[in-house]
Every structure is written in structure tokens, then in C-alpha cells.
Design brief:
The chain is mainly α and 114 residues long. Helix content is 45%, strand content 0%. The longest helix has 12 residues, at 40-51.
């Protein structure tokens, strides 16, 4: 299966959508914190601190590869932008990279434990 075929098939699967699972119908976050892959180490540390756990974050299967954006043709970019528009906007992503401000907003809006 080519990467283009994978993206085409994967973006049609309803279980991949995130925004609808993270918010209620009033668009309020239902969770305490959203961690992002781009800041996984810092976000993992934040979550550990919030729940009072000290734990390392192991890293397995590391690989070196080209920038993921190089894998997307213009057609694939349009396809992803259309099919995943809600998640892309909600989570602050673009093909130029994540929007740190939007991600910080989401992290500060999370429900706070009493």
C-alpha cells in the first residue's frame, strides 16, 4: 500500500477524529489536559506532576527520516485539510507546523482538578 493510499483510507475512518471526543456539545473541554506529540516530553512531565507521579518517558523505535511534510503531495495536503479540518483547526495544526499559541490555549483551558 502506498503512503497516498494509506492517507486516503485512514482519513476516512471516523475513529481518528479527536475534537469531537475532547469537547462537549458546548465546545468545552471534557479533559484536564491535552498533550501534544511535538512537546511530548514536557507534556508528559506536566501530566506526571498533576497526578503526583514520577516516571521516566521511555523512547523506543527511534528513527531518522525526512520531514513528514515532504511525503504529502498537493493533492494529499488538500485531502487531509478537507477531511480533518475540524481537528486541524481545533488542535492548532497546519502543514507549516503546529500553532504553539493555540496549543497553549487548549492546555490552559483544561478542566482543573479541585
Amino acid at each position: 500500500m502506498s503512503f497516498a493510499d494509506f492517507v486516503d483510507q485512514w482519513t476516512q475512518r471516523p475513529e481518528i477524529f479527536q475534537a469531537r471526543r475532547l469537547c462537549n456539545r458546548g465546545n468545552e473541554l471534557l479533559i484536564d489536559y491535552i498533550g501534544f506529540y511535538e512537546s511530548v516530553t514536557q507534556d508528559f512531565e506536566e501530566i506526571c506532576e498533576r497526578i503526583g507521579v514520577k516516571a521516566p518517558l521511555p523512547r523506543h523505535n527511534r528513527s531518522v527520516h525526512a520531514d513528514y511534510r515532504d511525503l504529502y503531495s498537493d493533492r494529499l495536503k488538500r485531502l487531509v485539510a478537507t477531511r480533518l479540518a475540524e481537528d486541524i483547526e481545533f488542535l492548532g495544526y497546519s502543514f507549516d507546523g503546529p500553532t504553539a499559541l493555540r496549543q497553549q490555549e487548549l492546555q490552559s483551558q483544561g478542566k482543573r482538578a479541585a
